[in-house]
Every structure is written in C-alpha cells, then in structure tokens.
Amino acid sequence: MTLINKIDYYNIESLLSEEEKMVRDTVSDFVNSEVIPIIEKYYHDEKFPFHLIPKLGEMGLFGITLPQKYGCAEMNNVAYGLAMQELERGDSGLRSFASVQSALVMYPIYTFGNEEQKNYWLPKLATGEKIGCFGLTEPDYGSNPGGMVTHAEKVDGGYLLNGAKMWITNGTIADVAVVWAKLDGVVHGFLVEKGTKGFEAPEMKGKHSLKASVTSELVFQDVFIPEENLLPNSRGLKSALMCLSQARYGIAWGVVGSMMACYDTALEYAKSRKQFSKPIAAYQITQEKLVYMITEITKAQLLNLQLGRLKDKNQAKFTHISMAKRNNCEKALDIARVAREILGANGILNEYPIMRHMNNLESVKTYEGTHEMHTLIIGEDITGFPAYDN
Amino acid sequence: MKIAVCVSHVPDTASKIYIGSDGKSIDQTGLTYVVNPYDEFAIEEALKTKEKFGGETVAISLGTDANKETLRKALAMGIDNAVLLKDDKYRDSLSVAKALADEIKAQGAELVFFGKQSVDFDNSVVGQLTAELLGYNCVSVVVSFSLDGNKITCEREIEGGKEFIETSLPAVITAQKGLNEPRYASLKGIMAAKKKVIIEKPALQSENFVEVIAMKRPPTKQAGRIIGTDVSAVPELVKILHEEAKVI
Ligand SMILES: Cc1cc2nc3c(=O)[nH]c(=O)nc-3n(C[C@H](O)[C@H](O)[C@H](O)COP(=O)(O)OP(=O)(O)OC[C@H]3O[C@@H](n4cnc5c(N)ncnc54)[C@H](O)[C@@H]3O)c2cc1C
C-alpha cells in the first residue's frame, strides 16, 4: 500500500534503474506504515524502536552494498543512498542506526577483517541478530581523532585495552564495538565484544537531539582483547576515516529525506492555512520560502545521484563526499527552520515532524565531521593549503 | 502443488483521479500505479502456503507492459514465476476472468489466490467468475485460510459477523484485509527478481458484455458550517440534521 512521497522537481526518477526505484519504494512503504505512525512517541520517550531491527534486517537494509555470500544484498551505492534517504524521512535516529551498523561496523569488518571475522560477524549483523557500534571520538578528541589517548598494549595472546570513547551511537546496545586505539603509536581497529571484563558502555542521557537513538560512553579498563579480535588489515587513522567516508555518503542521502518531510509538511500546511484573505501559500514571502526549499532539495538530489554514480565507478574522492555531506546537512537544517516558520506556532508541536527533524539535524550536521571540518577538507583540496594541522 | 496468484496493477490509492477527455475512462497523466492492495494479501498467502507445503508459485497479470512493475514486485516478495497476459483494450470482468482461467488451466494450478476486489473498478467478481469458469470451489472475502491435505478451512467476513467454511482443492480464494500481514520485498528479493524473466503471452480474446458509457466525479463538497463550539449548539445541530440534511 503505497503512498510514495515523491518530491522530484527535475524528473530525477528517470535517471534511476528499476531496482533502485523498487528499493526506494519498498523502504518508503515501510517507513510510512511502520515508522512515521510511532516515531514521535519513541522520540518523546527517548527510546529506540528496537522492534524494527529484525524487520530492517529481513528487508536487507544492513550492509546493502556488501557481497551476497555474507548475507547482504550486494546492491549499488545509489540503492544504498535511496534506502538511507527513506529511513531518514522517518527519523535521523533510525538512519543513524542503519549507518552505524552498515558503514561503521560491517564495512570495517569486511574491509579490514580476516575471513573468520567476516564469516562470523557479517551474516549476523546483516540480519540484525547482532548489533554493532563504532568508537572513535573521545571526550578530548572530536574533530582531531588522531590525538586519541585510548591505547592497546601487546600482552600474551592478545592486547590490553585502556581508555574511553564518547558519543558512541548504539554503544550500550551493541554486541560488538569496533574500537579505534593506538598500538605502538599507530591507530588500529579492535573488535570488543559485549560483556568482556573491564568494558562498560553506559548510556548518555539528556539529549535534545537524536532522542530515538542510543548514544553511549565506552570505558575500557585493562580489557583483554584476544589476538583474533584485532582487525588485521587496519592500519593508521586512514582506516577509520575510510569508514567515515562510507557513513558520510549515507548521511548526504539521508538528510534529503528530512528535507522532503519538512518541505512536504510546510507545502501542505501553507496551502490550507488561511490568514487575512487567502492561504498563506498565496503570499509572495511564503512562496519564496517554498521555492528556496524545493530548489535546495533538487540540488541535493542531483549532487547525491552523481556522487553515487561516481562511487559505483570507484571514482568518488573523499572530498566529493565531504561536499555532499557538508552542503546537504546545512541545507536540511535551513529547510527545517524555514518550514517551522511557515507553520508558525504549529511548527513547534510534535503533531508535525519538523521540530524533531530540526533537532536531529543539529547532531547530523556535527557528527561524521562537523560542517567546519568538511570546509577545511575541501578548502585544502582546492587550495593546497591545509588550514589545520594534520 | 502449483499455486497461482492473480494480481492487478491499479492507480495508487493516494493519487487524485481525473476523468479523461472521452468521458468514460480515467486520465492517465501523472498517475502512479501500484499492486492492488488486496492482491498483496493474496501474494502473501500464496508465499506462506508454499513455505509450509512446498510447491511452486506463479503470479499472473492481465494488461500492458506497465503491469510488469506489479509482477516484479510479486517476484521481489518471493513469487517464483510471473506471466503477463498482454492486452491493452478495455475488458469487462468476465472477459478478464476468461483470460485468467485460460492461463490458470495452462499452468495447472490447483490453488488460486485473488484479492477480494481490485480497487480501480471495484467490481469484486473476477475471482468468483474465474472459479466458475474453471469449475473450482470458491471462498471469497477470506480473513483466515488453512490447508490440510486436500481440505481447506476458511473464515470469511459477513455483515456483522464471521462465517466458517470448509471446502477442498482445487479452489479459488479471494483475500480480505486481515488475512495476513504482507511482507516487504527484501533487497535480496529485488536483486533476484531482476534476474527472472516475465513470460509474456497474448491474452485469450473474448467478447465484452458490459460497457462503460460514462464516468462522473462525485459532486464537490459544500463548505462546512459552524453552528457553535460547545454543548449549547447541540439542539440546533439536531434540528438541522433532522430538517435540512434529513439524516436523522
Ligand atoms: C548524537 C551523536 C552521535 C555520535 N555518534 C558517534 C559514533 O557513533 N562514533 C563516534 O566515534 N563518534 C560519534 N559522535 C561524535 C562526533 O563525531 C563528534 O561530536 C564530532 O566529530 C565533533 O567532535 P566534538 O563534538 O568533540 O567537537 P569539537 O571537535 O570539539 O568541535 C567543536 C567546534 O569547533 C569546531 N572546530 C574544531 N576544530 C576546528 C578547526 N580546526 N577549525 C575550525 N573549527 C574547528 C568544530 O567544527 C565545532 O564547531 C556522535 C556525536 C553525536 C552528537
């Protein structure tokens, strides 16, 4: 039973393959019937909708681009992007869950893991039977994770891990944490399993944003990590940043979903709300706002599609991904704010999705590299001058 | 056992329908089409039955190339094969049923699922007509279905209650909402569907006995009237409902 939220001013639909459209429409149906009707309540109660995890797994929404032999769909990056867009049209928290599971847990295990690690973890993560998290950020090292203090020390049969991570999505609920720590001064990825002695993951409370998503601290006190839990092919901060590129790509698409939800709500409201003699949509200032929104949505859609096509040809640079993440998050937040204005007082109510999206987008603009950091990344690329110490 | 499911391709229930320039068909511009919602229950029941008892499932749709989208969706949900009976002309329900019955016979399907009605023309007869043409048993508007050997037990919705029915194969079952919870197509299913071939055949031709002579939109809604906002308005409201609207 479809009610597809097709916001497509430039007939971008015609550039999609049949499978890509099917993925979008299937996830769209799922979000319309299973997410939108319940999400305000979960957001309000600061709860993640756990019951959706097996369904997301069954549909194949974790590790979409990874090989079928590990239980994944092996689809292209555009299909992956469209799925993220539809999930985030529901809520950024749900998309964050899928991003972390896919781009920050399954991708590093697939890319840096050995065959045993892949065979053991990937099929279970694909179905959602196991949940993962990604620990890079620390209390004192956010934009410059290279300064991290979490470190591992070689001991008999494995490593001893010490340190702390902060702001870790899914931390408390994860069965496995992909933790980045220095070993002899070089960053490596480790798989830390739930329940390992000395490892705690308390939830962080009091968020005004991403309330339907679990965010946690990870604390490691002399945690013994067996040799086989080191990701053998990870080496240096670059490995961690490769994961971020995957996740940022998903975010660039995801936030277009938030944009669509806000625009759609504002447009419908403006057409029906009458003030003075006519609907507010009939006033030029409102029209300017709506035109701004649809124009930015269209630009973001085109940016994403070309980025996805480049990524499928292995031609997407991390700076390309930075541009889409930076632009789309900023515009999504702007659109949410303008949409809120159009709804006037109603804009602040949870009867409409706008304020929830707006609050969520504050996190989305910050995580996976802040707006400023992406500016510096692209700035260095085009000028040749790094404006921050590498 | 071979299980067939007949699916129709209908305008999205969320789309606005306009009448075409001929005054007797709908305007196709800007319309998006979906799998007939009741047929999704039929697809799900076919899949569940196959998962339980084995066998093979085939989806059959009558219409143009556009119907392939609906057949692809059935394949992506897990149906094994798909047949498109090609025809682009208007057909009445009996003519549709004749073409479907012809294909079901060719397929040798013993159990056939339909939606209880197609939400485009709402005639609610194609399943029953097909059963009659095939000489199969038929249970319509089914909300619960079970199969045990040759024996079929169904629950169907009737006005103000439920009816329990027993019958046997071969049979046609028409699905009502509540029969099951249709699954979402999985991404793996979508990839698998991409590799499958939709078999195209010309649809059996037959005469129409029913003709649409005109279509009209319902009269536009009159503006509402606010009589009051608290209990004091009730007597006035009752009076208007009784005397003007004549509904009580
Ligand atoms: C809800 C949520 C979930 C998260 N999930 C995860 C997760 O799963 N895993 C994980 O590892 N991390 C996660 N993070 C952390 C996130 O990636 C960091 O918050 C982010 O990298 C920014 O770090 P910071 O908050 O320490 O800010 P800081 O780095 O302290 O930055 C503060 C401000 O200073 C600016 N700034 C910093 N350096 C410069 C500079 N050189 N030039 C100009 N401006 C600069 C920043 O742009 C920002 O505006 C999450 C964060 C949130 C909010």
Automatic annotation (TrEMBL), chain A:
Span of domain Acyl-CoA oxidase/dehydrogenase middle: 133-223
Keywords in alphabetical order: FAD, Flavoprotein, Oxidoreductase, Transit peptide
Ranges of residues in domain Acyl-CoA dehydrogenase/oxidase N-terminal: 17-129
One GO biological process term: fatty acid beta-oxidation using acyl-CoA dehydrogenase
UniProt-listed InterPro entries: Acyl-CoA_Oxase/DH_mid-dom (IPR006091), Acyl-CoA_Oxase/DH_mid-dom_sf (IPR046373), AcylCo_DH-like_C (IPR036250), AcylCo_DH/oxidase_C (IPR009075), AcylCoA_DH/ox_N (IPR013786), AcylCoA_DH/ox_N_sf (IPR037069), AcylCoA_DH/oxidase_NM_dom_sf (IPR009100), Glutaryl-CoA_DH_mitochondrial (IPR052033)
Domain Acyl-CoA dehydrogenase/oxidase C-terminal positions: 235-381
Presence of keyword Methyltransferase: no
Domain of life the protein comes from: Bacteria
GO MF annotation, one: flavin adenine dinucleotide binding
Cofactor(s) annotated in UniProt: FAD
Matches recorded under PANTHER family: GLUTARYL-COA DEHYDROGENASE, MITOCHONDRIAL
Family membership: Belongs to the acyl-CoA dehydrogenase family.
Protein name: Acyl-CoA dehydrogenase family protein
Species assigned in the record: Stygiobacter electus
Phylogenetic classification of the source organism: Bacteria, Pseudomonadati, Ignavibacteriota, Ignavibacteria, Ignavibacteriales
Automatic annotation (TrEMBL), chain B:
Protein name: Electron transfer flavoprotein subunit beta
Pfam families reported for this sequence: ETF
UniProt xrefs under InterPro entries: ETF_a/b_N (IPR014730), ETF_b (IPR012255), ETF_beta_N (IPR033948), Rossmann-like_a/b/a_fold (IPR014729)
Keyword Electron transport: yes
Electron transport found in the keyword field: yes
Family of the protein in this entry: Belongs to the ETF beta-subunit/FixA family.
Alphabetical UniProt keywords: Electron transport, Transport
GO molecular function (one): electron transfer activity
Ranges that cross the membrane: none
Domain Electron transfer flavoprotein alpha/beta-subunit N-terminal: 23-202
